[in-house]
Design goal:
With about 190 residues, the chain is of the alpha+beta class. It is built from four helices and six strands; from the N terminus they run E-E-H-E-E-H-H-E-E-H.
Length: about 190
């Protein structure tokens, strides 16, 4: 492995990647805890759905507006790409690994929330790809939430969607506002040139 830890960082690891100590442990803990919680809630809800719902028989909750409708999806959103399940499995695996690495580098609660939600959602669906029939990275994802005639989805899909939304709000609204605030002169008024 390389030299031992000195001065706050670990020297190059096995593959030459520099590994820094976790600088923001609270953000890292939030991201990893949220990832774990999403996976747990997703898998428990899917276990319930598989045992409580009849496949392809909708159970109205709020009329036709919201139904529980158990389907097994070999593809991606809207059941696209049903013949390339392995590709989606590999993308989800890469997403989970990336989110785990990013969680160690997370510097804000905004990033911790988005990393935790996206990583947890990707991991929840990846578990289906690995362990559900037919298995071996070809498994079908359990979906059971249905709004109107929109796509049928699950807790993991919802977490990914909310995580992306949190990231977009942070990167398009919050961060630019912080940057403008830091760039403003001490007097608080910007000089406008026309």
């Amino acid at each position: 492995m390389g030299p031992s830890a000195r001065g706050g960082e670990i020297a190059r690891g096995r593959w030459g990647i520099r590994l820094n100590r976790v600088k923001y442990p609270r953000c890292t803990a939030t991201a990893l805890t949220l990832m774990s919680a999403v996976v747990l809630i997703d898998q428990v809800s899917k276990l319930w759905a598989v045992h409580a719902l009849t496949p392809d028989k909708p159970l109205p909750v709020l009329g036709e507006w919201f139904r529980l409708y158990l389907v097994r999806n070999p593809g991606a959103a809207f059941s696209m790409g049903t013949q390339v399940t392995i590709v989606f499995s590999l993308i989800q695996l890469a997403a989970v690994i990336l989110c785990l690495v990013l969680s160690l580098r997370s510097r804000s609660m905004w990033s911790a929330l988005s990393i935790g939600l996206i990583g947890g959602g990707a991991a929840g669906n990846l578990l289906d790809r690995i362990f559900r029939s037919p298995g071996g990275m070809h498994g079908h994802v359990v979906d059971f939430f249905s709004f109107w005639s929109f796509a049928v989805f699950n807790v993991a899909d919802s977490a990914i969607t909310v995580g992306v939304a949190v990231y977009l709000v942070y990167s398009l609204v919050v961060e630019p506002a912080r940057t403008r605030q830091v760039a403003a002169p001490a007097g608080g008024k910007k000089e406008v040139h026309g």
